[in-house]
Amino acid sequence: MPSLSRIRLALPLALALAVLGSVPGAGAATPPAQPKEGPGGQAYAAASVVKRVLGRAGAVTLAYYGNGAAPAEGRPVAVMLHAWGAVNPQAYGAWIEHLARSGTLVLFPRFQEVGRTRPVDASGIAATLVKDALAELAGDQEAKPDLGRVALIGHLAGVPLAANLAAHAKETGLPVPRLIFGAMPGGIARDDKARGIALHDLNNIDPATLIVTVIGDRDARAADIAARRVMREASAVPTDHKLMVRALSDDHGFPALSATLAAPAGTNPAYDLGQLKLLTPDPKQKPAPFKWSADMTLTGEQTVLVGQINGAGTDSLDYLAFWKTFDMAAAAAFSGQSAASLKGNPRFIDMERWSDGWPVRRLSVETPRPPAPPKPAAVGAPAPVPTKPAAKPMPGRGQ
Asked: How far apart, in whole angstroms, are the C-alpha atoms of residue 16 and residue 36?
């Protein structure tokens, strides 16, 4: 029989272990932190970020760039196109800050006024906003946009928007983007009358454009279908300039990494729209005519998703699955490399290790299959009926 003194010593220890065991994640491995340097890392050139409001009342673009003089060659430009309904840059503030402090000029066009903007008008509105913002910054020696290094970042419905902007860059007066980076593609409509963003003629996307999509393994089917459709319809872009990436959830430690549709977002209160002084409309100017339609409002599912986006935190998936992959993809695109340079780089798929040394599940990469050659028509078969071309965006439409 154990002595009474040993029992007295063992009871507090057992109680402590029981308490620790009841705390979620107690003693569990922790996920990797943001890298100290390199792609996705925190070796920032700027200590703070300049935040500016461009445009006019009702047609605003937010601009962000690191404090201090711009390099002689100018700053690369990243246009961030938000998910439908996620109009406050605060939801993407962590990523915006990473890009801006790393030397990139970030533009956040507010192409949607929730409850008043139709999806069919979003492509034209976004094109006009970006064009006007770049024109306003053209002579600014601190912002100094380099129009030869432009990337489009889209999240959910922002991905088809990015594709539409790239397809009509020349005719709308926008610089031709070198990179389309689609995070969790979605929100693609069948046509202009359906809810969502209808794809235009993506065959007009410049063949030198690099297209990279990143999806997760949670709610993956819709994002996978959307990513493959964008790749397929951008038929002028060769296969070696396309890459599909999949981020995998990992619950080895605590907190677990969950690759959901909201994962690319990362809230930073410093980027809350309410902290900026927005432009007010001229009281003498009559407001534009407004006609309500049902597709202006968010569905119940969209409302829930926007709530998840606005509440998203920042974790290893942000640093390594989105920020790092974009940084590396932009470097490849701006230097004229193909997607093969990314696919063959082990750093591109590496997600580092949990605190106990166990590797985080790596990214998977896939080159989309080239389109199958058309089958020869049978002798005497009727000629195929030509399909109706997709509608083109109209700059300024709906504003």
From this structure: 36
pTM: 0.88
Q: What is residue 194's predicted lDDT score, i.e. its pLDDT? A: 79
Mean pLDDT by 10 residues, the chain (399 residues): 52 49 69 97 96 89 96 97 97 98 97 93 96 95 97 98 97 96 95 87 97 95 95 96 98 97 97 82 68 87 96 97 98 97 96 98 93 64 54 43
Helix/strand/coil (H, E, C) string of the chain? CCCHHHHHHHHHHHHHHHHHHHCCCCCCCCCCCCCCCCCCCCCCCCCCEEEEEEEECCEEEEEEEECCCCCCCCEEEEEEECCCCCCCHHHHHHHHHHHHHCCCEEEEECCCCCCCCCHHHHHHHHHHHHHHHHHHHCCCCCCCEEEEEEEEEEECCHHHHHHHHHHCHHHHCCCCCCEEEEECCCCEECCCCCCCEECCCHHHCCCCCEEEEEEECCCHHHHHHHHHHHHHHCCCCCHHHEEEEEECCECCCCCCECCCCCCCCCCCHHHCHHHCCCCCCCCCCCCCCCCCCHHHCCCHHHHHHHHHHHCCCCCHHHHHHHHHHHHHHHHHHHCCCCCHHHHCCHHHHCCCECCCCCECCCCEEECCCCCCCCCCCCCCCCCCCCCCCCCCCCCCCCC
Which tokens in the block code for residue 360?
């985080």
pLDDT given for residue 10 in this prediction: 54
Backbone phi and psi for residue 145, each to the nearest 5 degrees, phi listed first: -70, 135
Residue 370 is predicted with a pLDDT of 77
